[in-house]
Amino acid sequence: MFDFREPCFSQWGIWSHINNRTPMSIGYNSFGQLYAVVDNPAAETSLQSGYNKTTNKMINPMINATWNVYGVEGLKVRAGGNYRVEIANGKSWTRLAPEYDLEGNPGPSTTTNLSYSNTDYYEYTMQFFGDYKRSFLDAHNVEASFGFESNYGFQRGLSATRKNYVFMIDQLNAGPSSSMENSGSEAEAGRAGFVGVLNYNYKKKYYINGSLRYDGSDLFPEDRRWGTFLAGTAAWAISEESFFKPLKDANILNFLKFRTGYGQIGLDSGVGRFSYLTSYSLNERGYVLNNSLVPTFSEGSLISDAITWYSRNTFNVALDFTTLGERLGGTVEYFYVQTKGYLTSPSSVAYTDPLGLSLPQVKSDGEHRRAGYEFSLSWKDRIGDINYEVGGNFTYFDQLIAVSWNEDLAAQKNPYRREVQQRGYWGLGYHNLGYYQSSDDVMNSPRYESGFDLVAGDIKYEDVNGDGFIDSSDQRRIGSNSFPRGNYGIYANLGYKGWFANILFQGATSRDMYVEDVVRSTSIQASMVYPFQRDYWTPDNRNAMYPRPVVTSSVNGSNNDQTSDFWLVNGRYFRLKTFQIGYDMKAQLLRSLKWLSKMEVVLSGQNLFTLSPATKYGFDPENASTNNYGYPMERTFAIGLNVGF
Question: In sequence order, what E strands does 38-180 have?
Fold first, then answer.
């Protein structure tokens, strides 16, 4: 059980409003009263404002039973399950503390509302499996499992609201009955599946694994509900062969293993529940007849009775090794992932919609590919009283849409805009040519079609098709990638006579982060919020970070606010993620105390420094928000004492 309470404006909302405020913004007037301004964080966090309160009660019992079958060596049967029950109660008292203008006069009044919500949820999972494990003739090792699993969940919700409170009492019956509303909902979901796994190895040299899944999802119609998916792996421990012994004895290669695998899983994401059934939507306030509200029904989406599972296929090949007396070890692996048969509506690829309704989903020939490699290396050794291990890993992948499932033929024929068969871009936008540097530059260059009153210091765009002006036909793929293609980590662990230290660096290769409105300085609420926004274009600062300052983005027809590669920032980074140093006093100072097994004093830190081009815009490269709305990655220091008896 847990209780959670926060201001009614939510933590995320308040944090974003703090970030939106310029240094010149005020929260209080000269009388110490809350100042009447839109999204005032001081008012939103006031104890006189409202709150959101949530109470969750959960219970999750589990049971497992295993029976070693008498008379059949290596065979056991197991059954298990869990039953989860959750009751969530919410209360939202939406109220803003009184605000005043600079002269102390009351600001605009706001409405006060109260809402209650109650959600009951239960879910259960059942498993029944048989496992078999045997070794024969000290050479053949067999493991097998076969079983069934099912899952079912049900949820019911109720809510009640009253609005426009006159008496500031946060109880439902204190609100006006004329504004009361209520609502309710029910939902259920179920899945089931059969699975079989067979593992075999010969003298721990040759390994074969195979698995089969037969999965069912209630998102599909009955005749298409089940799908069969296969997977298999094979491995060869080459270092266990007799011909390999000279290499092991000479410490040239102590261990070498080759492995490969192929697997398939079924996917059903993006499918609407009961989309294969005829449906109707209810509007409880459809019409007013005879001074009374009358509910109405409208026809739902066209049924998708041809939908079924689509699949993701994965292939990999890898090599594991150790050498030099097992001091140097590593893994090298290549992987390839192919997702096929995406579910999509023909309406997504510019087919005409009959009856004013989107065409239903069908299984397409869409295909997405991802491929890459990863490797890791580590070295561990001992020099006198010093033992150490250093290592690192690197993963790189790229991806593309091989066959599009939601891009029409006209778009695919456009070499500048198409998504299919393209790698390495952020999205669509204009290519910038820097700034207009003079009035002659403005007059003699193509201009954005909706732009006006352009002057030096505004952003200049490329006329891709050469027709003399800039419009949507000049948009093209921009940037390099919306995700880092490579991720890496470097670590070191050291030990010396009770002293120990651990360090971890991590990082990522280039990716594009798009500067959003507040950081672009184009938000209505925020002009210049951060010090770096003062690096704007002037005749004496022609290579500035920002274009000329404007009162609002519409001053020049929003020319500077168009989606373009001008606002793409490189999000690559290198970060000292963790550092730890400590001493175990038991190793020397307290070694005579038999009742004490350890006493470690540890000093640690996290996120100690970061190198990234994104920091010049105040971004954290691991934070998804490019308006600095996400809570920042904290730099923390800690000291701890670990005692063992």
Answer: 51-59, 62-68, 75-94, 113-136, 140-162
* Predicted confidence (pLDDT) at residue 519 exceeds the cutoff of 60: yes
Of the candidates 477, 348, 478, 480, the one whose C-alpha atom is nearest the C-alpha of residue 415 is: 477
More confident residue, 581 or 288: 581
pLDDT of 524: 55
Classify residue 227 as exposed, middle or buried by CB count within 10 Å of its CB (0-12, 13-18, 19+). buried
Helices and strands of the chain, counted as H and E runs: 6, 29
Residue in this structure with the two tokens 């998916």, named with its chain if needed: 229
How many other β-carbons are positioned within 10 Å of the β-carbon of residue 9?
21
Read off the tokens for 451. 């732009």
CA dist., res. 317 & res. 207, Å (int): 14
Contact assessment for residue 544 and residue 536, using Cβ atoms and an 8 Å cutoff: yes
Neighbours of 484 (CB within 10 A): 20
| Nearest residue to 458 via CA among 564, 330, 576, 362 | 564
- Judge contact between 550 and 473, C-beta under 8 A: no
Q: Is 98 helix (H, G, I), strand (E, B) or coil?
A: coil
User: What is the distance between the alpha carbons of residues 128 and 486, in angstroms, rounded to a whole number?
Assistant: 41
CA distances from 559 to 70, 442, 454, 555, 562 (A): 80, 12, 8, 9, 6
- Beta bridge partners of residue 227, listed in sequence order: 215
From the CB of residue 11, how many other CB atoms can be counted at a distance below 10 Å?
Answer: 12
Q: Is the dihedral of CA 478, 479, 480, 486 positive or negative?
A: negative
Q: Are 412 and 401 in contact (CB under 8 A)?
A: no
**How would you class 501 by CB atoms within 10 Å of its CB: exposed for 0-12, middle for 13-18, buried for 19 or more?**
middle
Classify the C-alpha dihedral 161-164-167-169 as positive or negative. positive
Instruction: Note the maximum CA span of the chain.
Output: 98
Distance CA 297, CA 280 (A): 6
Tokens of 497: 């006579």
pLDDT digits (tens, 9 = 90+) for 326-381: 999 999 999 999 999 999 888 888 777 777 788 888 889 999 999 999 999 999 99
The reported pLDDT for the residue numbered 527 is 66
Query: 544: closest CA among 552, 535, 553?
Result: 535
- Tokens 């350890």 correspond to 598
26 token code pair:
């005020």
Residue 356, amino acid: G
Strand-pair partners of 331: 320, 376
Of the chain, the percentage scoring pLDDT greater than 70 comes to: 98
Using only the alpha carbons of the chain, give its radius of gyration: 32
Q: What is the pLDDT of residue 331?
A: 97
> SS3 string of 44-84?
HCCCCCCEEEEEEEEECCEEEEEEECCCCCCEEEEEEEEEE
Distance CA 134, CA 74 (A): 6
**Gap between the Cα atoms of 35 and 29, Å rounded:** 5
Rounded to an integer, what distance in angstroms lies between the CA atom of residue 404 and that of residue 339? 12
- Report residue 430's pLDDT band, with 50, 70 and 90 as the boundaries: very high
User: What element of type H or E holds 262?
Assistant: strand 255-267
Reference 213, options 197, 236, 234; nearest CA is 197
CA distances from residue 253 to 205, 244, 260 in whole angstroms, order as listed: 16, 9, 20
Question: Residue 590 pLDDT more than 70?
Answer: no
As a whole number of angstroms, the distance between CA 566 and CA 579 comes to 37
